[in-house]
Amino acid sequence: MSDKAPGTDRSSTSLLFRSNERILCFHGPLLYEAKVVKAEMWDGTDPDAPEPGPHYFVHYKGWKQTWDEWVDESRALKFNEENLAKQKALRVAALQASKKRTLVVPAKHSARVESESESQRSRKRVREQSVEKTEEQEVSRSVEVKIPIPNALKAQLVDDWERVTKDRLLVPVPRSPTVAQMLDQYQEHRRTSKDKRRPLRHDNEIVDEIIDGLKVYFDKALGNILLYRFERYQYKQMLEQFPERNPAEIYGCEHLLRLFVQLPNLIMHTNMDDDAVVLLKDQLGDILKYMHKFSKALFASEYENASPAYVAVAKAT
């Protein structure tokens, strides 16, 4: 009996790299040494592996297995002198780019700096390097923290905005499923899915942590940045009616989708390292794909008309 997975062709004739081969692999803008664990040719017929072409499951040298992942051939390079030179050049370029953001000591302090003891200079360099590293992370994140939202969900955001702000309609709440229920359903879907592209790094513990964090973010953000003015009185009503519930147990995907728009800016101001940010972006993108796939069941097809009494109070608040 063949162990060939659906939608794949393991013929080695069209694969540039083989199992156990030492390679260089792009992770972000830099190249890292890695080993090919599996090599497969995907033909695009498997819905869980729709992108046709050569794909490799790689392990990065010195990294935990949680970072192992499937990559397409465009991210992999032969381990040779030419590509090692390219790896070094990319690191040098990244270092030079970071030096452009180094702190500059004002001229009026130059004499004082020259007279400092060696230990004082050393401590100063450590402080400056720490501040510089933080600034570099924030600058890079302002460019790199992008969570792609499927076009159909972008249309959902526009429709949502028009219904609430122009048509004076309300999302029916409590929703079913709620944000908490949808995220639990996503976790179950992910555990039972045979999606080949999901690397081991997306293990259950990591995903559970991200899901829990997303629920907390939603609970904290809803009343502060996710509501339109016309919805605030409804929010007050829900908190009074369901004091024992968190917002994630009342509201649904209409408001969660609004959070995804805000997340890049929120992530940019955290102290997460770049690798953690990449992992978080990948997982959030996967949740959006799930929301897109099951959008008919997750989003309300009709919004509610607000009563005249509600409209009067909403206008006054």
Output the radius of gyration. Answer: 25 Å
Distance between the termini: 69 Å
Low-confidence stretches: 1-12, 100-119, 128-143
Total count of strands: 8
Give the percentage of residues in beta strands: 5-15%
Helicity range of the residues?
A: 40-55%
**Quick check: average pLDDT?**
80
Computed structural class: alpha+beta
Coarse morphology:
elongated
Largest sheet: 6 strands, antiparallel
Structure description:
The strands form 2 sheets. Strands 1, 2, 3, 4, 5 and 6 form a 6-stranded antiparallel beta sheet that branches. The protein has a two-stranded antiparallel ribbon with strand order 7-8. 52% of the residues lie in helices and 13% in strands. It contains 11 helices and 8 strands. The longest helix has 27 residues, at 118-144. The chain is elongated. Mean pLDDT is 80; it is low at 1-12, 100-119 and 128-143. It starts with 7 loop residues before the first strand and ends with a helix. α6 (204-226) crosses α8 and α8 packs antiparallel against α9 (274-293).
Q: Would you kindly provide a brief summary of this structure?
A:
This protein has 317 residues and is of the alpha+beta class. It has helices spanning 81-99, 110-115, 118-144, 151-166, 179-192, 204-226, 232-241, 253-268, 274-293, 295-298, 308-316; strands at 8-9, 22-27, 30-42, 53-60, 69-72, 76-78, 169-170, 304-305.
Q: Any descriptors?
A:
single chain, elongated
Task: Give the SSE layout.
Layout: E1 8-9, E2 22-27, E3 30-42, E4 53-60, E5 69-72, E6 76-78, H1 81-99, H2 110-115, H3 118-144, H4 151-166, E7 169-170, H5 179-192, H6 204-226, H7 232-241, H8 253-268, H9 274-293, H10 295-298, E8 304-305, H11 308-316
Antiparallel strand pairs: 1-3, 2-3, 2-6, 3-4, 4-5, 7-8
